């Protein structure tokens, strides 16, 4: 539906072309000329343009709000109001409802008043918006400058005191936080290990759920836990109609707010140092070559074993790295959290690798076992193995997509997604690694079959690894007190 709005004051009646009927006719013709039919009339007879309270205008504004009007024809802006600001406000209001204004006086658009009107129209709505924004952000900053928290971000460890706009320590959670710092500073644990340890001890966070790695990592890094909190560290910027981006503010824009401390500043600093040290060690650990990666299984539960490194402190306080193979159920959060962790223990990498390699060399050297142990593998197809791995890869990727979809549909919460994705990504990384290794072997030793000589003469890591991949035996291992046992399965 389209509308025409006409207004006459008592003074206007005498002016030529301004009578009620003249205006109605002009607006009607104007709309019809543009092919707009279905015209509803809004009439204010005998009302001054000084005030906005007019029955016809009120009705028009309410119909506009209800979205039933597409185009509003008006003789000239003067009909809306005598005052430019009010003209602009109404024009802005009309256009915000999605409707369009059209003025009958054709030359209005190009007249000086018209140009001013249209350039001011855009300016005034931008001005109003920024004014509102400034008022609110100024209010928020003022609140923060008075040492108050602007809005509750629900950080772990604190409850919300609404009356004073301040965080108060949650006693139970604060004990967990102190324990987390203890594990980091005195045991050298990283977030992942701390998370596992908390799950093992049955220590939970809010809503009785196990703490996630992300939460633990935040607890270890956020300065707020030693009492120094900063507000306005980030701001949200509008980047499109419905998109927003979070940007960092420069430090001079931050507002410090003191909150109750759960740990001391010294503890926080020691933790930061330990996190730095762990990071350095982690980079070194990534470079470590594990001979039995992907071939090893837990003899107790049959799950695969993963390789990892952990640091421990020497008596003189320096760090030492220990490498271990460990049943995946002990290292994956999914297993640990569900409480189905295997009872097996970790096996030192070097000892196990040496023993397994020694055993294979012995077998290869003993002539009578030779045929049985090595030649059974002549028909082994690498490409088949790669195909199998590819199939698993596809399954895992599907799982990943499903997990994300469930999350989007609110079927699972963010912590579960996080855990699931971590496990899936870990498995995918291992498979990816194994596929690329198999490919290399396939290319290099295309028609070669492992001979006992290959095994006996293999000296470097690459040579040994290549022989092992070609044999593709499954090795099962378990730790017993101070020693370990293993068996090799073809
Ligand atoms: Zn196990």
Automatic annotation (TrEMBL):
Record bears the keyword Methyltransferase: no
Annotated Recombinase domain ranges read: 155-281
The record's SUPFAM superfamilies line, in alphabetical order, gives: Resolvase-like
Question: Which UniProt keyword terms apply here?
Answer: DNA integration, DNA recombination, DNA-binding
Gene Ontology molecular function: any one? DNA strand exchange activity
PROSITE patterns recorded for this chain? Answer: RECOMBINASE_DNA_BIND, RECOMBINASES_1, RECOMBINASES_3
Record carries keyword Phosphoprotein:
no
One biological process GO term for this chain?
Answer: DNA integration
- One Pfam match, given by its short name, reads Zn_ribbon_recom
Instruction: Name the catalytic site residues.
Output: 9 (o-(5'-phospho-dna)-serine intermediate)
- UniProt cross-references to InterPro entries, sorted A to Z: DNA_bind_recomb_sf, DNA_bind_recombinase_dom, Recombinase_CS, Resolv_N, Resolvase-like_N_sf, SSR_resolvase, Zn_ribbon_recom_dom
Q: Which SMART domains match?
A: Resolvase
Give the domain of life: Bacteria
Tell me where in this chain the Resolvase/invertase-type recombinase catalytic domain is found. 1-147
> Which PANTHER family does this UniProt record tie to the protein?
DNA RECOMBINASE-RELATED (PTHR30461:SF23), DNA-INVERTASE FROM LAMBDOID PROPHAGE (PTHR30461)
The name of this protein is Resolvase domain-containing protein
Q: Whose protein is this, by species? A: Pelosinus fermentans JBW45
């Amino acid at each position: 539906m389209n509308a025409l709005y006409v207004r006459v004051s008592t003074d206007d009646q005498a002016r030529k072309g301004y009578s009620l009927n003249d205006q109605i006719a002009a607006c009607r013709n104007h709309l019809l000329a543009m092919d707009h039919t279905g015209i509803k009339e809004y009439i204010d007879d005998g009302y001054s343009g000084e005030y906005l309270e007019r029955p016809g205008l009120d009705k028009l504004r309410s119909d506009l709000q209800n979205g039933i009007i597409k185009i509003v024809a008006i003789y000239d802006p003067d009909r809306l109001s005598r005052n430019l600001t009010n003209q602009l406000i109404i024009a802005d209001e009309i256009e915000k409802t999605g409707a369009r204004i059209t003025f009958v006086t054709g030359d209005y658009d190009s007249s000086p008043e018209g140009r001013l009107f249209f350039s001011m129209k855009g300016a005034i709505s931008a001005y109003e918006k920024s004014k509102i924004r400034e008022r609110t952000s100024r209010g928020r900053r003022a609140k923060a400058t008075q040492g108050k928290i602007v809005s509750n971000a629900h950080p772990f460890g604190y409850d919300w005191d609404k009356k004073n706009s301040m965080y108060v320590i949650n006693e139970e959670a604060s004990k967990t936080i102190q324990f987390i710092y203890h594990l980091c500073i005195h045991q050298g644990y990283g977030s992942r290990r701390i998370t596992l340890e908390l799950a093992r001890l049955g220590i939970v966070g809010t809503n009785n759920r196990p703490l996630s790695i992300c939460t633990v990592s935040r607890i270890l890094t956020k300065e707020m836990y030693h009492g120094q909190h900063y507000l306005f560290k980030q701001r949200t910027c509008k980047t499109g109609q419905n998109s927003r981006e979070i940007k960092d503010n420069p430090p001079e824009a931050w507002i410090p707010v003191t909150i109750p401390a759960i740990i001391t500043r010294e503890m926080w600093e020691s933790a930061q140092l330990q996190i730095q040290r762990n990071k350095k060690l982690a980079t070194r650990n990534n470079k470590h070559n594990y001979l039995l990666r992907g071939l090893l299984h837990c003899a107790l539960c049959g799950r695969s074993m993963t390789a990892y490194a952990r640091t421990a402190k020497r008596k003189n306080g320096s760090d030492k790295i220990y490498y271990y193979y460990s049943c995946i159920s002990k290292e994956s959060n999914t297993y640990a959290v569900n409480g189905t962790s295997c009872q097996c223990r970790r096996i030192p990498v070097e000892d196990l690798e040496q023993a397994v390699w020694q055993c294979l060399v012995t077998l290869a050297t003993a002539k009578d076992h030779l045929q049985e142990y090595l030649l059974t593998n002549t028909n082994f197809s690498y490409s088949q193995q790669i195909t199998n791995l590819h199939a698993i890869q596809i399954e895992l990727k599907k799982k990943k997509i499903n997990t994300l979809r469930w999350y989007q549909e609110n079927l699972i919460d963010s912590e579960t997604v996080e855990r699931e994705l971590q496990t899936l990504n870990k498995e995918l990384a291992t498979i990816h690694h194994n596929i690329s290794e198999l490919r290399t072997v396939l290319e290099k030793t295309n028609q070669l079959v492992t001979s006992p000589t290959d095994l006996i003469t293999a000296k470097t890591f690459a040579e040994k690894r290549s022989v092992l991949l070609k044999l593709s035996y499954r090795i099962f291992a378990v730790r017993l007190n101070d020693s370990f046992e293993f068996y090799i399965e073809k």
